[in-house]
Amino acid sequence: MLSNDVWRIAVVVEMEPYEEALSIIRGDLLTVEERKQEFTFNSELKLIDTLLTTLESNLYTFKQILPKLDPRRGLINFGGAMLKALFGTAVDYDFFA
Questions:
Q1: 60 and 23, same structural domain?
Q2: Cα(40)–Cα(20) distance, integer angstroms
Q3: What pTM, to 2 d.p., does this model score?
Q4: 15 in the same domain as 46
Q5: 35 and 11: one domain?
């Protein structure tokens, strides 16, 4: 969105695919640990577990720095929808579509 001297850039970040992938890998790692055989090294499994823990931690930290939606904006959103219906002005979801 461009207006006067200010630029606002909106980026949609979906974290669910990453969370799902980490969950699947974590489940597979537990399955391998349960069925491990003599040729499977504990150090390799521990390294994968450490890497998964680091990735989960980084994902959690990244989610914490993302801005949160303010639930108090309901009245403002309604007003924007009314202005859009009456005058065709843009609302938030027009910029993200």
A1: yes
A2: 26
A3: 0.55
A4: yes
A5: yes
